[in-house]
Amino acid sequence: MKDVLTDGIPFDAWVLIADGEKALFLRNLTDGQDPHLEVVRKEEQDNPKDIDQSANRPGRMNDTGVGQRSALDDTDWHELAKERFADDLADLLYRQAHKGRFDRIVLVAPPKTLGELRKVLHKEVADKVIAEVPKTLTNHPLDEIEAALKAA
After folding, report:
1. Which helix (H) or strand (E) holds 141?
2. Which fold has domain 14-44+74-151?
3. If DSSP codes are grouped into helix, strand and coil, which group holds residue 26?
4. In DSSP terms, which residues pair with 133 in a beta bridge?
């Protein structure tokens, strides 16, 4: 797997633009030097802020001293949903690869999301990854995505 796209994005290769809540599946319709990307699929999860998902205040526990109590961290439901989204993406990519929808794919995501994805990708998909680009491009228009990938 390469870290940069020295030869550009090959014809018919897929590009996954993702973060912890949204994913855009694109396909390159032209040569590697001047990519023209087409949207194949969009995925998005409804992931409200943690405060909106939490039901209780963080818990407290007694310390060893008299009258001392410490706060416990509550589960960050927002972050947990982001991690689960990476699992869902990995499963979706596996199903698409298994159907022969793509032979090569470029993963574009923030570093943390890339790390989560890397951990859960099936071998069949991991073997098709030709590059990873650690950038957040989910809210960019297609022409800006194409320009950013060409620069990578």
Report:
1. none
2. Nucleotidyltransferase; domain 5 (3.30.420)
3. strand
4. 108
CA distances from 64 to 73, 116, 146 (A): 19, 37, 59
Reduced to 3 states, what is the DSSP secondary structure of residue 70? strand
As a whole number of Å, the CA-based R_g of the chain is 19
Q: What is the pLDDT of residues 6-61, one digit of tens each?
A: 678 999 999 999 988 889 999 999 877 788 999 998 888 654 454 554 555 555 55
Residue with tokens 């550009």: 8
Residue 114 and residue 107 in contact, taking contact as beta carbons nearer than 8 Å: yes
How far, in Å, CA of 143 to CA of 79, rounded?
Answer: 30
Q: Hey, where are the domains in the chain?
A: 14-44+74-151
